[in-house]
Amino acid sequence: MIDLGILPALVTMLKEKSDSELTLRLLSGIDDILTMTQGGEDEENTMLTEFDSMGGQDLLEDLLKSMDRKVVQSANDIIEKYYAVEDTDEFYKGALKLEAAGKDVMRPTPNPSPNKP
């Protein structure tokens, strides 16, 4: 299936802003492909390179802003697994804190001005 160009199809579908269930299935498929094509530490993952060239990392980062906790978790897991990024975990934790406090993750409360009493 990898040789048949399934990765571009999954990325295209992911760009369509589907419902959460479909998004989770697409992320799972992308993760499976990247896992199957991952070589040793010194080998380049050509599917990861292809995924990046299609804007895949940006898509994952956009999904970190999702209102669906499972989508955020899945996107965060892929980023942590395939990219050397440390700040996504902090964003994810921050999003969970906002959600737990009943705040909208997409529209965080603005910081108050330090000059106002």
Condensed summary:
It is built from six helices and no strands. It is mostly helical and 117 residues long. The longest helix is centred in the N-terminal third of the chain and has 17 residues.
Q: Mind explaining what this structure looks like?
A:
The chain has one domain. With 117 residues, the protein is mainly α. The longest helix is centred in the N-terminal third of the chain and has 17 residues, at 20-36. The protein has helices at residues 6-15, 20-36, 46-53, 56-63, 69-82, 87-100. The chain has six helices and no strands. Residues 106-117 have low confidence and may be disordered. The protein is globular, with a radius of gyration of 17 Å. 61% of the residues lie in helices and 0% in strands. The termini are far apart.
What key attributes describe this structure?
117 residues; mainly alpha; 61% helix; globular
Number of H/I helices: 6
Helix content: 55-70%
| Mean pLDDT across all amino acids | 77
Percentage of residues in DSSP E strands: under 5%
What shape does the CA trace take?
A: globular
Secondary-structure-derived class = mainly alpha
Rg: 17 Å
User: Secondary-structure element sequence?
Assistant: HHHHHH
| Assembly form of the protein | single chain
Largest sheet: none
**How far is the first residue's CA from the last residue's CA?**
62 Å
- Total domain count: 1
